[in-house]
Every structure is written in structure tokens, then in C-alpha cells.
Specification:
Length: 442
């Protein structure tokens, strides 16, 4: 691609793209978000960077009422951007990367994205909308930062709008140009999409109020364990009877109920009279409990579920198998970390002894030193590394059980030590002690 803006940065990026597409282990000289996207495109999605972009049309989505409002608001923003800036295309996509509508400004050559075409990263490689949706954030993809060489003459900026309850992307607003400087910045799109995000937050607040009211009303009449779960499967309330049985948000039983919410939502949509049963284990080896899930209806389908404990012998309605934890998949070979100067490192899982959280950042204690994990959030890292033998031993600590060599019990509780020379003790919460004992065969 000719460097029309005369920028040496484009030349460096194109050289980095060529090296990585040819087989380099780690992409260098590109932003971290682009490097991670290239890794996904090559190693996970197996996309050919030289193949034409294939964005097949689809028209099989069903949206909630508040989502339609978000799409309308983003459409007004996109039309305004196209009307104010020549040479650009502004588009609105749904959470799957499907183009809902696009506007081609004067001087853009009329190259508006076809409605219905899907620009998800798994199909089209690194691109504004697809990459913003893959890990919801505001992103800028310039020229050769695109994975597909067919898009190297374009630049785009995009931001995703996420559901505050489910945490998933609902839509994306993207502005792209061909061989031109971008007319807007990521921060501009973040500000412009603020009202659309408030629509989702307001809807979430109304749903929470409905769910809380239903929980309080039923708790007055029930003395059995009762738990309220939102649409994302999170435990948002539990009565005293549930707490006494150890059915807390981070307990195995609470997680099992949360995993059952997704299939329950599918079965309860359009049928407010539906109820289902999930059998979960209680803490301390107590007798398993059968929870009856009752949907709490809202304006556009269930806003959550109330789970009421029954005896296992009283199960008579639709029985939902509790899905296995998401982490029960194939063990990852490597974990991405960031070193000095923002350089990306791909570490073998065996090289990581443990990880500790510092706010949303996660620091990996490795044989190469302490490095920051490329992705934020220890919850997410714990899910990804669980198949590789990593165990969450504390709210802020994750340990590689294969590297544990010592276990110490003291007045302040249990700690574990790794095979590193010198004192390196990781605290173990009381709740995690049984899991640690089981993992270490104690």
C-alpha cells in the first residue's frame, strides 16, 4: 500500500505485518490491541491474510426493544458524521458484526458497507467493527494494521456499546475511509455513543428493580433457600437460608445456578409460566439441592430468575442440566503478557508460577520476571488458565498448581509456596482450602 500520508509508521506496520504473516512468533512494532487481534486471526481463526475478505450476508437476528433504540440512536450519529465529513463511510453493526445500516459521505466513492454483511473478526480479520466487538472497546485500525491485505488501503475507527448486565457487545459504530486520514477519534465516538449506553443502563436499572421487588415479595412468603439471578447468571441476592447452606455467589452451587441461566432464558422467552429445575451441590458435602428456576418477566422477556430450593425428590418440571464450567475446554499452550516498552511476550504456561490482581490489572510472576497480563481482569484469566492447572486460591491470587512445592498452615491461615528459591508464599482464602487440598492431593 502506498503511504499516502508519508508516514514512516505505516511502513513499519506493513513490515511487521509481512513478518508476522510469514511466521514470526510475536508481532512487533504495532499497538497491543492490534498484536492480540493478529494472534487471534492467525492462530485461532486460521484466516489467510492474502485471501479476499468474505463478509457473508445474514438476516436471522432477533433484538430486544432497548437494542432497537440503541441502533436508532447510533444511526442518527452515523448519518451526522457522514453528513459533516467528506470521504468517509459511517456504519452501525449489531453485536455479531452484522451491518444494520451505513451512510457514504460525499467523496467516499459510494462504497457503503452492504446491509446484512458480517464483519466479525472471526470472518473478516482485524477490522474496526469486528475488533471492537471481539474485546469491547474503542479501537483504531489503520491501513496495514488490518489482517487482510485487501483492506490495507482503508483506515477505520470504531467503538462498541455493551450491555451493562450481560457484559456483551450490543452494537458498534464505525467510521472508515479509503486512503485518507480519519475524521474522528476514538474519544469522539465514545462521547457520541454515551446516550445509547445510557439507554441500556436505564433498562438494566428497571430490570434490577423488577427483579429485586420479586425477590423481596417471595422471600416474605418462603423460608427455604432463595436466590435471585440476573440475566447474565450473576447471583444478585440470597436470603439467610441460602447463605447458611453456603450458596453464595462464588460458591460452586452459585456458579452452577449461574451457568443454568443461559439455557433457561432460551426456554422461558415467550412463556412466563415456564419453570425449570437445576440440581446443585451445597458447600461442605451437604446433600445436593434442587432449585426451581422461575422467570421474572419484564417488558421484553425475563429480567432474571428466582431460584427456590426444593427437595430433590420433588422435581416434576423441566430439568436443566447444569452446564460444565466454561474453563473445562482445551488447555492453552501460552499466555500473553506485556513487558517493558509495551512489547508483547508469549509465555509458556509452565513458566508462570502465580498471578496477582492489582485492580483490573493482573501481574504474572514468571521465571522471566514480573510481567503484566495482556488482558485485564483476574476472573477472565482464571477461566482461561483453569484447564492448564491454574487454581484461584484467593480473590486476588491465581496459582499454577504444578509449581506448588510447600503448604504452610499458620495463625493467619493457609499459604502455598512455589518451587522458586526463597520465600514466595501465596495466601489461600478459607473458602479455597478444600479446592487446594483436592488439587494437591492432601
Amino acid at each position: 500500500m502506498p503511504d499516502r500520508d508519508g508516514s514512516a509508521a505505516f511502513t513499519r506496520t506493513r513490515d511487521a505485518w509481512e513478518r508476522f504473516a510469514a511466521g514470526d512468533e510475536v508481532p512487533a512494532d504495532v499497538p497491543l490491541s492490534i498484536a492480540l487481534s493478529w494472534l487471534r486471526c492467525r492462530d485461532l481463526h486460521r484466516l489467510d491474510p492474502l485471501a479476499p475478505v468474505h463478509a457473508p450476508a445474514r438476516d436471522d437476528a432477533v433484538y430486544r426493544r432497548e437494542h432497537a433504540s440503541v441502533f436508532t440512536m447510533l444511526g442518527a450519529v452515523a448519518a451526522g458524521i457522514a453528513g459533516r465529513h467528506d470521504g468517509c463511510v459511517a456504519a452501525v453493526t449489531d453485536g455479531d458484526g452484522r451491518v444494520l445500516a451505513s451512510w457514504a459521505a460525499r467523496g467516499s466513492g459510494g462504497s457503503a458497507a452492504a446491509p446484512g454483511s458480517v464483519w466479525a473478526e472471526a470472518r473478516a480479520g482485524t477490522n474496526g467493527a469486528g475488533t471492537a466487538l471481539a474485546h469491547p472497546r474503542a479501537v483504531c485500525v489503520r491501513g496495514p494494521e488490518h489482517w487482510s491485505s485487501a483492506l490495507h488501503d482503508r483506515s477505520c475507527v470504531s467503538t462498541a456499546v455493551c450491555d451493562p448486565v450481560l457484559g456483551t457487545a450490543v452494537a458498534a459504530l464505525t467510521v472508515s475511509t479509503r486512503g485518507r486520514c480519519l475524521p474522528v477519534r476514538p474519544d469522539d465516538l465514545l462521547l457520541a455513543t454515551g446516550p445509547a449506553l445510557r439507554v441500556l443502563c436505564d433498562a438494566a436499572a428497571r430490570s434490577s428493580a423488577v427483579l429485586a421487588g420479586a425477590f423481596v415479595d417471595l422471600d416474605r412468603r418462603e423460608r427455604r433457600p432463595l436466590i435471585a439471578l440476573d440475566g447474565g447468571g450473576r447471583v444478585v441476592a440470597a436470603n439467610a437460608a441460602a447463605c447458611q447452606r453456603g450458596l453464595l455467589p462464588r460458591s460452586d452451587g452459585g456458579r452452577a445456578l449461574g451457568r443454568a441461566v443461559a439455557p433457561a432464558l432460551v426456554r422461558a422467552c415467550g412463556d412466563d409460566t415456564w419453570s425449570g429445575t437445576v440440581v446443585v451441590g451445597a458447600a461442605g458435602g451437604a446433600e445436593p439441592l434442587a432449585f426451581r428456576l422461575r422467570p421474572v418477566p419484564g417488558d421484553a422477556g425475563p429480567v432474571g430468575f428466582l431460584a427456590v430450593a426444593d427437595r430433590t425428590g420433588s422435581v416434576t418440571d423441566d430439568v436443566l442440566p447444569a452446564p460444565p464450567p466454561a474453563a473445562g475446554g482445551v488447555a492453552p499452550d501460552r499466555v500473553a503478557a506485556v513487558g517493558r516498552g509495551g512489547r508483547l511476550h508469549l509465555l509458556a504456561c509452565d513458566d508462570v508460577r502465580h498471578a496477582r490482581a492489582d485492580g483490573h490489572d493482573v501481574w504474572l510472576v514468571t521465571d522471566l520476571g514480573v510481567l503484566r497480563a495482556a488482558h485485564r481482569g483476574i476472573d477472565r484469566l482464571a477461566r482461561e488458565l483453569a484447564p492448564a492447572g491454574f487454581l484461584r486460591v484467593h480473590r486476588g491470587h491465581l496459582v499454577n498448581t504444578a509449581r506448588v512445592r510447600t503448604v504452610h498452615r499458620g495463625p493467619d491461615g493457609m499459604t502455598v509456596g512455589t518451587d522458586r528459591a526463597g520465600a514466595e508464599r501465596i495466601p489461600v482464602s478459607r473458602r479455597a482450602v478444600p479446592a487446594v487440598r483436592a488439587a494437591l492431593g492432601l
